[in-house]
Amino acid sequence: MKNNEFYIGMWVTKDGYIRHELLPDGRYDEARGNRKSAYQGSYKMTGNHIDYKDDTGFLADGDFRDGVLYHAGMVLYKE
């Protein structure tokens, strides 16, 4: 398995409100509540750190620790 393959897929908050899909082509698609594709953009992995740039130019980042994604004050779990 390539290093980044673990991270590919759907990550969700415990309540399911935020659904954050990391795609294998370096893109992501984030849904919020009933808003499918609320945010879209690209991401880059460096070790367990992820940097995001959405299509409007907004930057964010996060870290994977013990199989959990900590991103912008949210905690997401792999589905």
TrEMBL record:
Listed InterPro entries: Atu4866-like_sf, Uncharacterised_Atu4866
Protein name: Protein Atu4866
Lineage: Bacteria, Pseudomonadati, Bacteroidota, Cytophagia, Cytophagales
